[in-house]
Design a protein that fits this description.
By secondary structure, this protein is mainly α. The protein is built from 19 helices and ten strands. 34% of the residues are buried.
Length: 380
């Protein structure tokens, strides 16, 4: 209705049967029965259309005033009715800046393992809402503290303490929460921030007394693909997050000595996720040393400026070699085959490096003829 979303249902309740991952919907006869099966008191308030008196049998208004998330009736019964309420409690508390009532919180911990009963799609939807909310860091911290994260993202939970083998510990989980909070409220941005360092658990090491996580971005990328696929995210979302996670260290290695060709390749590799990648790189510097943050900010600013300058010359994503496969087939009177791709790639590399104009067909023909002559001369 205009900008207002209205959901309509008969009086109902939902309950999970043992061993089932789909709720059994049971319709009720009265509003009182319906409200008694709601999840939390703040969601168990009604008003008759045309009237001004609240129907609030469970004290929801009082809990709103106290900023409290409290289960309707016995918390254990409500969570057994639908274990997804375990996540809803965290979402309400984190996004509204509410506290979870003591008995309800205790029951959350006791029933955490029942998240196994819930379909991954339903968990995915709750996680999406939490991550694009105003306080994703608070939500993730609560999920970890309440024992819920173990059944959703165990790879993220493992970051709370990394045993380095050198008698030291590094809390990468705390760093991750800062990064998640700092990136824009977009799903790909937030998920990339959540998962970008998950590979550090498996790559931690020491060399000459220095801590390192060599190759963690590739491990993190694999974890991201698996974790998001298990949560039934669509393929484009999985691919987008995985790309950002896998490339997230590239930006911080940027140096003014990069050639224009190197910058163009970086942009083409990042593709549609260039903005997410740059935003993650900015947020990923959480050092207490101000000079490190300032240096990182300058580095990203310089890279953005170079990208803008190069884009003004020609769209980097649209760069193509002067010739295509049909041109090569006609030039050499050969059938299509694997011989075409390396020649086109060679021309494209030259275009990206600024050594060949995208419309210079004459020079491109000379180059490929020389390449083919060289290859034929090397053949036995």
């Amino acid at each position: 209705m205009g900008d207002t979303r209205v959901e309509i249902t008969t009086y109902r309740g939902e309950q999970y049967e043992p061993g089932s991952r789909k709720p059994d919907v049971r319709f009720s006869a009265t509003l009182a029965e319906d409200l008694a099966r709601r999840d939390f008191t703040i969601n168990a308030i009604a008003i008759e259309i045309g009237q001004t008196v609240l129907i609030d049998p469970h004290g929801g208004q009082h809990d709103l005033d106290r900023k409290l998330v409290r289960a309707v009736g016995p918390p254990g019964e409500r969570f057994r009715d639908d274990p997804l309420r375990l996540l809803r409690a965290v979402r309400f508390a984190s996004t509204l800046d509410f506290q979870i009532e003591t008995a309800t919180e205790r029951s959350l911990r006791d029933h955490a393992r029942e998240l196994k009963l819930i379909s991954r799609e339903r968990i995915r939807d709750e996680m999406s809402l939490m991550l694009v909310g105003p306080t994703p860091d608070v939500a993730l911290q609560m999920l970890a503290d309440l024992g819920l994260l173990e059944y959703i993202l165990p790879d993220l939970l493992a970051l709370r303490t990394v045993e380095t083998g050198g008698g030291r510990h590094k809390d990468i989980f705390a760093h991750t929460l800062k990064v998640v909070k700092a990136v824009p409220r977009e799903l790909v941005h937030r998920w990339a921030a959540v998962l970008h360092d998950t590979g550090k658990v498996r790559t931690v090491g020491w060399t000459d007394g220095k801590l390192h996580f060599n190759g963690h971005e590739q491990v993190s990328e694999r974890i991201a693909r698996r974790a998001l696929s298990e949560l039934r995210y669509d393929r484009p979302t999985v691919a987008a997050v995985a790309k950002v996670v896998g490339m997230h260290t590239h930006t911080n290695s940027y140096h003014v000595e990069w050639t224009d060709g190197a910058v163009r390749r970086f942009v083409r590799d990042a593709g549609d996720q260039l903005d997410a990648l740059l935003e993650l790189s900015c947020a990923d510097i959480t050092s207490y040393h101000i000079y490190k943050k300032e240096a990182a900010a300058r580095r990203i600013k310089e890279l953005r400026a170079r990208i803008e300058r190069l884009e003004q010359e020609a769209s980097i994503a649209a760069l193509r070699p002067p010739l295509d496969g049909n041109d090569l087939i006609q030039m050499f009177d050969r059938p299509p085959g694997p011989w075409i791709k390396p020649l086109l790639q060679h021309l494209l590399d030259m275009v990206i490096d600024g050594e060949l104009a995208p419309d210079d067909r004459s020079t491109a023909e000379t180059i490929v003829r020389a390449q083919v002559s060289l290859q034929e001369g090397e053949s036995p």
